[in-house]
Structures are given as C-alpha cells and as structure tokens.
Amino acid sequence: LSLLMDDRKNVKRLIQAAIKFNFKLILAGRIRNNKELKLLSSWIGNNKNIMYKGYLSNEELLSYYAKAKVFALPSINEGVGIVGLEAASMGCDLVITNLGGPKEYYNGLAKIINPYSIDEIGNAVVDLLQGQTFQPQLKNHVQSRFSLDSISQQLVDSYKKII
After folding, report:
1. 106: Cβ contacts below 8 Å, ≥ 6 apart
2. What does the angle CA 46 – CA 84 – CA 70 come to, to the nearest 5 degrees?
3. 159 sits in which H/E element
4. What is the pairing mode between strands 50-52 and 70-73?
5. Is the peptide bond before 136 cis (omega within 30 degrees of 0)?
6. Would you give the distance in Å from CA 140 to the centre of its chain?
7. Strand duo 25-27 + 50-52: pairing
8. pTM of the entire structure?
9. DSSP 109
10. Which tens digits make up the pLDDT trace of 34-93?
C-alpha cells in the first residue's frame, strides 16, 4: 500500500510464504519503475494464488479491506503501520512484525511474527484463514483507541498534564 518494493516491506518473504502455504495473496502499492515490476513478477512467477493490483484509490482500498480476512504486515522496519490499523478497523485479522512499532498497538489481538521467517508468516496467515480470529475484539480495540475523537482526547489530556 506504499512503496511495495522497498526492502523493509519484506514483500519477497510474504510472497514466498503464499507460495509455500498456498494462500491467496493480493498485493497493492506503488511500483516505481519497470525494473521493480520485473523483479516483483519474477517473485510471483506463475503462481495463480498471488495477484498484484497496483496502486489503489481510497475507495478501492476500503473495498479490499472489507473483503479481506487477513492483512499481513511483515515489515523488517516499520513505524506505526497505519495500514494495519486501517485493516483491523475494517474487520481484518492481522499478521504483524515483531520489529518496530506495530506490535505495540494491538494488545495481543494479532499474530505477531518474526518477519525473517517464511514459516512464521505462512503459519500465522493460515491459522487465521482457517478460523482462528481476534475479531470483533480487534476491531473494537482499534476503533475505541485510535479513532480521531480518541486520539484528539489523548492529545488534549497530554497537554493538560504538561500545563
């Protein structure tokens, strides 16, 4: 959903997990040039369970979130990971990296994986696809703590403590 081919996004291992564990994977995001597109195509190969959709508009993105069961964010370096919050608030279960900030936001309501392990990524996705779920608790958690109103109130409370 951002620069898909940045090494830190770890897309190659996510694709390898989809191939090894045979789950449907839809990728979206910007590709900067033909070299990146060729590299992504080489990783996907002839695997029919993996599709690249390109850059999505906000409307398209919401539609994909609404249809998805699982959202995977196996980044090697990630800050907040806003896309994970968006996906969770739309009802997706999450597979998230144990590196960086994302794991701090979900209160144990996501599969936290080592992003260097294709097997951990794959097993986590499959577990969620086969019925393990953190929903609707995850959606409620995200919507109650990270809505615009909630974040605004947290900011006001922080300012009050300082003043």
Report:
1. 84, 88, 94, 96, 134, 138, 141, 142
2. 50
3. helix 148-162
4. unpaired
5. yes
6. 18
7. parallel
8. 0.90
9. -
10. 999 999 999 999 999 999 999 999 999 999 999 999 999 999 998 888 899 999 999 999
